[in-house]
Write a structure and sequence with these properties.
alpha+beta, 5-stranded antiparallel sheet, 15 strands, globular
Length: 207
């Protein structure tokens, strides 16, 4: 799929008060080690944990509160239209509140799957991830490193990497929306803590 825009951002759009409320709420909930799709929900042994942390090392909390969606979803719709994607989507998965401490990161990956969701009697059934959103909840003065980067080689592994840092969302309350098949990573945090919120938005498979 050829894209004119690989991502669309809104700078300092979510009020600081809301960002702080999400962070405060996330810290009150029990976190868990983040995993990747290949590991699923099974209990991991020490070798599997070690292998996983070579790819992804962060802690997450799941949220499904309506007030959070109400703050974020309008910008997903706006970005979808403004960027010219016009993807059909109609459901958002649980919000992933992520904590990156010093040394934590998430290496290159894309959010989309190679198969549709097979979850009968749920809003996800038969759908795929189409649009991802990341919200910056931390003040950039509170951490170093942890940059969100995109690789714009357009899913062709034979092309040379075309990496760009998404510096536009460094200000607290900024967010970026991008097609879920676009490759991206979170660089290691060098100092402090970086908090973010990620939401995946689903729709029917592309024709």
């Amino acid at each position: 799929m050829n894209l004119t825009n690989y991502y669309w951002y809104f700078q300092s759009i979510i009020p600081v008060r809301i960002c702080d409320d999400i962070v405060r709420y996330g810290k009150q909930l029990q976190d868990q080690m983040a995993v990747t799709g290949g590991f699923g929900n099974k209990k991991l042994n020490q070798k599997q944990i070690k292998d996983l942390k070579k790819k992804r090392n962060s802690n997450i909390v799941w949220m499904s509160d309506r007030w959070i969606y109400k703050e974020i979803q309008p910008y997903v719709h706006q970005a979808n239209a403004s960027a010219g994607w016009n993807f059909q989507w109609d459901f958002s998965e649980s919000c992933q509140f992520t904590k990156y401490e010093k040394g934590q990161f998430y290496d290159w990956h894309c959010d989309s799957w190679d198969k549709i969701y097979d979850q009968p009697n749920t809003p996800s059934h038969g759908k795929i991830r189409k649009l991802s959103v990341t919200v910056s909840l931390s003040d950039p003065k509170d951490y170093k490193g942890g940059e969100l980067e995109f690789d714009f080689r357009n899913m062709d592994p034979d092309k040379k990497p075309n990496i760009r840092k998404c510096t536009e969302i460094l200000p607290k309350g900024s967010l970026v929306v991008f097609p879920s098949f676009v490759w991206h990573r979170v660089c290691p945090v060098k100092k402090g803590s970086r908090y973010s919120l990620v939401i995946w938005n689903l729709g029917w498979p592309f024709k």
